[in-house]
């Protein structure tokens, strides 16, 4: 399902990490983002995501932005 933020944006980082067999620490090293910042994103507490970070995550996880983020219209 992913972690749902207050804005209704769900983050599916756990699912993508599992699919690629990566840990959050490994991903942080790959995309040059701190583990703390990735954890904030993973738990749906991020207020914003830079396009450069989103692109780096998509490259590392071999995914499209829509696989990483979705919007719950009910929120």
Overview of this structure, please?
The protein has 75 residues and is mainly α. It has helices at residues 13-20, 24-31, 35-42, 51-61, 65-68, and strands at residues 3-4, 9-11, 69-71. It has one domain (3-64): lambda repressor-like DNA-binding domains (434 Repressor (Amino-terminal Domain)), CATH 1.10.260. It has five helices and three strands, in the order E-E-H-H-H-H-H-E. A hairpin with a 4-residue loop joins strand 1 and strand 2. The chain is globular, with a radius of gyration of 11 Å. The model has no long low-confidence stretch (mean pLDDT 92).
Quick synopsis:
It is built from 5 helices and 3 strands. The chain is mainly α.
Tell me, what's the shape?
A: globular
Mean pLDDT: 92
User: Based on DSSP secondary structure assignment, what is the total number of beta strands?
Assistant: 3
Helix/strand/pairing category? mainly alpha
Q: Largest sheet, described in full?
A: 3 strands, antiparallel
In CATH, the homologous superfamily goes by the name lambda repressor-like DNA-binding domains
Count of domain modules: 1
Percent helix: 40-55%
Q: Please state the second-level CATH architecture.
A: Orthogonal Bundle
Secondary-structure element series: EEHHHHHE
Q: How is the largest sheet built, in terms of strand order? A: 1-2-3
Radius of gyration: 11 Å
Terminal CA distance reads 15 Å
Count of helical segments?
5
Low-confidence stretches: none
CATH topology: 434 Repressor (Amino-terminal Domain)
Assigned CATH class: Mainly Alpha
Report strand %.
Answer: 5-15%
